[in-house]
Amino acid sequence: GAVVSQHPSRVICKSGTSVKIECRSLDFQATTMFWYRQFPKQSLMLMATSNEGSKATYEQGVEKDKFLINHASLTLSTLTVTSAHPEDSSFYICSARAQPPLGSEAFFGQGTRLTVV
Amino acid sequence: GQQVMQIPQYQHVQEGEDFTTYCNSSTTLSNIQWYKQRPGGHPVFLIQLVKSGEVKKQKRLTFQFGEAKKNSSLHITATQTTDVGTYFCAGSKTSYDKVIFGPGTSLSVIP
Description:
The complex is a heterodimer.
Chain A: E1 4-7, E2 10-13, E3 19-25, E4 30-38, E5 45-51, E6 57-58, E7 67-73, E8 76-81, E9 90-98, E10 106-108, E11 112-116
Parallel strand pairs in A: 2-11
Antiparallel strand pairs in A: 1-3, 3-8, 4-5, 4-9, 5-6, 7-8, 9-10, 9-11
Chain B: E1 4-7, E2 10-14, E3 19-25, E4 31-37, E5 44-49, E6 55-58, E7 61-65, E8 71-76, E9 85-92, E10 100-101, E11 105-110
């Protein structure tokens, strides 16, 4: 199946610093990428939807100035957590949806575990 | 807004017993997907259902999409310890809409 690579898999940063997470579709073009956050023992909560070449659409309650999303190409989207705080510590997962004819299945990256100390 | 619900939240079964998780959406779905997440891992795609009343099987797993395309179920026959994990359903209103996940059902299998 299609492969989505997410990097880094783990990151520890100091409070107040920024962290960038990359999501790449390796063998297909992703017109749409989704960013999710998952707290321990909870479900995946959609943070934002990004379409290549346009601004991301954020879900209610997600601060767009804090979670900067850039989808500059059909194979790369980035999520930057700015001025990170301990409450931002979570598991961040991206998924990419391919163009037809691959269908509407969303392929997931391996996730990034962010710890803010 | 669109909501996806799942029951039960947790299920503990003896190895060899069957297991079923149910997924319900507040709106009609274009498609529904099922994922499995092992502890410490990321969600792994299992299957996608798109047709009303569709039933698909993968070995011991049976997936069903309701006639109204608002509910779905995953049934595992004769559970094994390798089935342990959290099973999420996820759906979208259209093929190109955002994918919303249900809260998941955590399955424990007692050997």
